[in-house]
Write a structure and sequence with these properties.
It catalyses: (R)-4'-phosphopantothenate + L-cysteine + CTP = N-[(R)-4-phosphopantothenoyl]-L-cysteine + CMP + diphosphate + H(+); N-[(R)-4-phosphopantothenoyl]-L-cysteine + H(+) = (R)-4'-phosphopantetheine + CO2. The protein folds into 2 domains: 175 residues, Flavin prenyltransferase-like (Rossmann fold); 198 residues, CoaB-like (Rossmann fold, 3-Layer(aba) Sandwich), CATH 3.40.50. The protein contains 14 helices and 19 strands.
Length: 387
């Protein structure tokens, strides 16, 4: 499946480095050419000979490796690679990439390669939650890196928490998706909404919600990668636009309704991942001055899904249900009332996170529970269920 593909596997000093051996073995089984680059810390955990034996190639340990017959192996390899994978990736390596640092062979390759890039973090839960690591992770995504994980599970310190590197098979699946992604959606036109709408209270204040738009953007990215022509209607989301995706930016529910109505006519599927405000202020006003109290009179916004359902035609209509109680029951009710083909039910814990969990329910009432995973994995599962 990966014949003719050159993959650089970077291994850093996380205890999960031993799993990288399985990655090399599986990649070789898929006929990929694999070159392993290790940091000094990784070499303390797993012997380079292990990777040399499994990959069939010399292991690069530093910038001045003498084992490869080129003057600057870290540059020549990075130029011919189809993919650079760092698994596991420590907080330190993530910070180096975010800061544009290059003080060893792996970080130098990370800067010099034009290949696709995938990173699988692995670290202690509190390190992963550290604001600096969170900011660096967000930055490298904007720089073009794909992230997978980390997952929840038992950590080396004994805690049951987030921080585990994704399992090798999950990483292999993402590698295959990146390098030989199926083009099974070629010819399909998909309209996706993302983010959270805002309803103006006065010229400086608004009603809003906590939606980051990450789920809708992940679906758009996955659909475009699989060959679909994707229009993404985005409300107040500060995220990189996926390659090949047409972006339409809106702010309010009214603007989103207009954009969806105009774009849905020729769509094969409409996926309403946005968190659309249910209410807006009934009357506009000047800037509200500070006082003892304030009463806002609200009215309902237009129900975009309901309007689409009335003119559904042959297109697939997919909704999202965010519930704090009776998750499945309330999602099934919404699915029926709005004539949906599929609904993804989830809780508020998914807001703003790079991961999600939830339940997929179709028109026949069949449900599929999706355990916690990165949002791109969830996005692929949603697309699989639609088509």
């Amino acid at each position: 499946m990966l014949k003719g593909k050159t993959i650089i596997l970077g291994v850093t000093g996380c205890i999960a480095a031993y799993k990288a051996a399985t990655l090399v073995s599986r990649l070789k089984d898929l006929d990929a050419e694999v070159w392993v680059v290790m940091t000094a810390e990784a070499a303390q955990l797993v012997g380079p000979l292990t990777f040399r034996t499994l990959s069939g190639n010399p292991v690069i340990l530093d910038l001045y490796s003498q084992e490869i017959a080129t003057p600057v192996p870290h540059i020549s390899l990075s130029q011919k690679a189809d993919l650079l994978v760092i698994a596991p990736a420590t907080a330190n390596m993530i910070g180096k990439i975010a800061g544009g640092l290059a003080d060893d062979a792996l970080s130098t390759m990370a800067l010099s390669t034009t290949a696709k890039k995938l990173l699988a973090p692995g670290m202690n839960c509190e390190m992963w939650r550290n604001p600096a690591v969170a900011a660096n992770s967000e930055k490298i995504v904007k720089l073009g890196w794909e992230l997978i994980g980390p997952e929840e599970g038992k950590l080396a310190c004994g805690d049951l928490d987030i921080g585990r590197m994704s399992e090798p098979e999950e990483i292999i699946s993402r590698i295959i998706e990146l390098l030989v992604a199926p083009r099974d959606l070629k010819g399909k036109k998909i309209l996706i909404t993302a983010g959270g709408t805002r309803e103006q209270i006065d010229p400086v204040r608004y009603l809003a919600n906590r939606s980051s738009g990450k789920m809708g953007y992940a679906i758009a990215k996955a659909a475009s990668r699989r060959g679909a022509a994707v229009t993404l209607i985005s409300a107040n989301a500060s995220l990189p636009v996926p390659a090949g995706v047409r972006l339409v930016e809106v702010e309010s529910a009214r603007e989103m309704l207009a954009a969806v109505a105009g774009g849905a006519q020729n769509a094969d599927a409409v996926i309403m991942a946005a968190a659309v405000a249910d209410f807006k202020v009934k009357s506009k006003r000047a800037k509200i001055k500070k006082g003892k109290g304030l009463v806002l009179e609200l009215e309902a916004t237009s129900d975009i899904l309901k309007k689409l359902a009335g003119k559904k035609g042959k297109r697939k209509l997919v909704g999202f249900a965010l519930e704090t109680e009776n998750l499945v029951k309330n999602a099934k009710k919404k699915l029926a009332e709005k004539n949906l083909d599929l609904i993804f039910a989830n809780g508020p814990e998914n807001f703003g996170s790079d991961q999600a969990r939830g339940v997929l329910i179709d028109r026949a009432g069949r449900r599929v529970d999706l355990p916690l995973a990165d949002k791109e994995t969830i996005a692929s599962r949603i697309l699989d269920a639609i088509f």
